[in-house]
Amino acid sequence: MDFLTITQTLLEGFAVTCCLFFITLLLSLPLGLLISFCTMSKFKPLSYTFKVIVWIIRGIPLMLQLFIVYFLPGMLSKEGINIFGELDNYLYFELGINAGGALVAALIAFIINYACYFSEIFRGGIESISKGQYEAGQVLGMKKGQIFSHVVLMQVIKRIVPPMSNEIITLVKDTALARVIGVIEIIRQAEIFATKALIWPLFYTGAFYLLFVGALTLLFGFIEKKLSYFKA
Amino acid sequence: MAYLEIKNFTKNFGDVEVLKGIDMQVEKGKAVSIIGPSGSGKSTLLRCINFLETPDSGVMVLDGETLLDCSKKEKRDDKTLRNKRLNFGLVFQSFNLFPQHSVFKNLTLAPTLLLKDKIKAYKKELKQNKELSFKARKSLINCFKAEQKELIEKTAEELLVKTGLTDKKNAYPCELSGGQCQRVAIARALALNPKILCFDEPTSALDPELTGEVLKVIRSLADEKHTIIIVTHEMGFAKNVSDKVVFLYQGKVEEYGDAKEVLENPKSEALKNFLSSVSEKEG
Fold first, then answer.
1. CB-based contact (8 Å) between A154 and chain B?
2. Phi then psi dihedrals of residue A96, to 5 deg
3. Domain carrying residue B17
4. Which residues in chain A are contacts of B195 at CB distance < 8 A?
5. ipTM computed for the complex
6. Domain check: are B103 and B185 in the same one?
7. What pLDDT, in 10s, does the model give residues A105-151?
8. What is the pTM of this model?
9. Is B171 touching A (CB cutoff 8 A)?
């Protein structure tokens, strides 16, 4: 097999990796903000509930969470039907998509997991804004929502860019975990070559990750520079 | 009756009695200085007046309207509080400018956000007039919007001139000196045209050589007959600019009267001690 075909096959796997990455990012950011509001809520039962949830999600391995999301529905249903397995079969036989159900399960696990990590970063950012900023908004007759969106938010964003970029770069590489429930992302794709005694494509996948993370690093550097016009 | 009348304000933080029954009057167009040693409750009093804290008991009447009466059950939702707060402007010791907005945006942000409510109210008003077509209503609203926006911008420009910041219009707070920041904060508070302007130690966070420019602005406001309440440690300023002085001591009004009279002929032992300790510091 020549270099070009292998690159092409790996790109197919990389498309799945990117799909996992972007969808997880897109949905876990707002969910994380919501969770951070819940953990900061003055209504104690709500804040404690979410603190416990965050503790559980951050406390068990992501790999285990993938297994739980994929297998638990089947174990809970009386007929023993695994909805993700069914989805796998349906998508394969109807549309020819491999491991589609597993992809959905992986997305659910990733979104919940990353939303919890993001929520703590958001909480740190929001709580670091001085009380004086809120009070300045209050004495100027602003509504609570207006104070958040027009006064606090931008300062929070500036402060959380470095920890967020860390977490987002970790997400790129964590997507590889999805292979444990059968998602055919780039590393799984390379492993298929490895079973045919072709090892180097496995190492070659590293280049894809490096390029992707490199682009992200440049992007975050750009955002930081864009936000450097003010001090917060 | 005085313009602003405060009766029997008390406030406890846990077991600490910070205010022990404060009575105070402010006349329209006059400046009142609140002085006193640290921990005497000056800032807490100012924060209560601005609805940032709720006193445990007391009554506050502004221009004949009872804004606060702790003996009655009053609405304390966001909207009522906002409307009450708008009677007052507050300039903080630490400026609290919005760092991500330019000087001009700092001045126009709050008025622009309030304009949204005004437009809503105007829309409602127009809807009751059934004779107006949809198109006519829309053009009226757009006209109103443009007019108000222009007014906000004009006011902001005027305030920049007044505070001597015209060349800093597009600068960001991090590019300004402390004195300039505080002048922006004063202009920002004035942009909403409050009935009473409050200052919470406006020069305490500034280098000595920068206090002058801020005090000059406050003095010009007093000369223009703005009603002012100022918590300050600048005794000279209190004496020369304010009409009345309130001396707070351990949560109580120890002395109250004409500024010169109170500061030149202190009656209580506490005020005598306080004034001598301040003058010692100033050398």
1. yes
2. 75, 20
3. 1-87+194-203+227-283
4. none
5. 0.91
6. yes
7. 999 999 999 999 999 999 999 999 999 999 999 999 999 999 999 99
8. 0.87
9. no
